[in-house]
Amino acid sequence: MNSQIALAFAEIEKLIPQYLQIEEDKWISNGNVAICIINEDGDTFGKMYGNDKPRQRQSYKIAWTKASQVWLTGVKTGAYEKMVFNGIVGENANGIEAPDLIGWQGGQPITLKDGTKLSVGFSGFRGTTDLEIAEKAFQEL
Fold this sequence. Notes:
By secondary structure, the protein is an alpha+beta fold. The chain contains five helices and four strands; from the N terminus they run H-H-E-E-H-H-E-E-H. It has helices at residues 2-20, 23-29, 53-73, 79-85, 127-138, and strands at 34-39, 44-48, 107-111, 117-123. A hairpin with a 5-residue loop joins strand 3 (107-111) and strand 4. Helix 1 packs across helix 5. The chain is globular and about 40 Å long. The model has no long low-confidence stretch (mean pLDDT 94).
């Protein structure tokens, strides 16, 4: 598991400069982004990128919130909130009260080729980019 996570972290490091070319993504955190990964056993892995420690901390806090919500629900962030607010899932059905829901995109379940299930949260770019960079980092694993 550690070697797979290390490969994903390295891939993200390669991808960040590409996304910083997109003004809307650069503006959000200037490359101070973070990823949090939680496996089915609750083991947590994380990495922060950039050079602004307070901004990295904020990005990681959001990434952890996204990943932990996916870990509890099994559903992408954003989609889960729609389920709650449309009455499909009860507000506290998975142990998350409404004020603690994170509606931003960027949290998602990812299954590796060997069947390992991960709950992944990425933060620091636009939500659609947060999802995309994590998907790309894990697509070969």
